[in-house]
Prior knowledge:
globular; archaeoglobus fulgidus dsm 4304 fold; alpha+beta; single chain; 31% helix
Amino acid sequence: MSAAPAEDVVRRWESEQQRLRLQLLDHDTESWQQNPDFSGLQRVGGVDLSFIKGDDVNACAQLVVLSFPDMELLYEDSRMVTLTAPYVAGFLAFRETPFLLEALQRLQENQPELLPQVVLVDGNGLFHDREFGLACHLGVLSGLPCVGVAKNLLQVQGVNKSQEHQSQIAALQKGGDSFPLTAASGKVLGKALRSSDKSVKPVYVSVGHKISLDTAVRLTHACCRYRVPEPIRQADCRSREYLRQHFPAADA
């Protein structure tokens, strides 16, 4: 799976990203997004993939749906999957989206009343070298509002771990404080968010689909008990626990 794909595959992926990018909505589309306390929002989804240690092909694809604002578990789906696309920087969505989309589709078919009103994705959205990361891909294909929340800074379009960036992080005083991630072009691609008072290391929030950046940042903060927003944290914890239970020898 580490072998590089043929150039024609990468070109096809780039073309697909460009095609889907035309369908992306980077503004608020839902009534709950207009309310300061998100009144009307009841269900928030989180997705993640966890891999067996030493195996970059077999993974647990995880979907959770939590109540809002209480962050209580309403639904979970853990499913072992076999990834068929190689990992290529900037094209993570082609590896992971099909399985996350299947999990949402299973929920839609079996318990549609629990379908999340927004999905938080462990990865980037518009904060991407071609402004179409995993959260955008999943959002456009699912039709659901999506937010990208990355734990590490993606260094693209002139955004990097410069001294200025570190100074901006140090200036974040409390949970909810943020600063823009501005490309060399001047375009704001996302925001670095101090997600809780206790965590000084920020998360990186960007638009996935059907939500504005400011709303995405407010929502991410509202979902945080710790540094990582609870829907993503729960998806990560539960997928890792699934691997521990089913593949104990692999030391996942």
